[in-house]
Amino acid sequence: MRYQISGKQIDIGDALQTHVKEELGGSVKKYAERPTDAQVIFSKSGHEFVCEATVHLSTGLTASAKAHNNDIYGAFDACNEKMEKQLRRYKRRLKDHHKDRVEPVELFGASSYILASESDSDAQEPETLQPMIIAEMQTKIATLSVGEAVMQMELSGDPVLVFRNESKDGLNVVYRREDGNIGWIDP
Asked: Does the keyword Transport apply (predicted)?
């Protein structure tokens, strides 16, 4: 597994990198077959350290976790524990989907935009109804079954996932509803 361990505005020493590789590698290999790469980012928020970890699996799914602690090692250990819990919960389904899938998940390119919010509601009426784009990025849309899409959304912790339905070959959306259930939009 390839590791990318970095820090935002903080120095990451060799001892921490070794600790991350040993602990994260052991946790991921225990519950997932053939992980491909892991990205771990450390940052500081006030007096606490924040650790964000993302692991890409050979099935095409991505697991991510985030934790914070007063100690940088404690932040990583809490993040690793969350990652291990997620993977343990989905172990059987991860292995089953991998056996059924002959080829890796197919990804298609798409554009992703961040729009400016209407922060001042008492302001005068805008000149145009077009929202202001403040960032533009490239993203990937995976071709998945509905079950795989729900599992991917749960593993990544995202509230919504847009995917290409492999059985109908159209764009679909799964999302977490306010009542805790999962919604599925199939146009």
From this structure: no
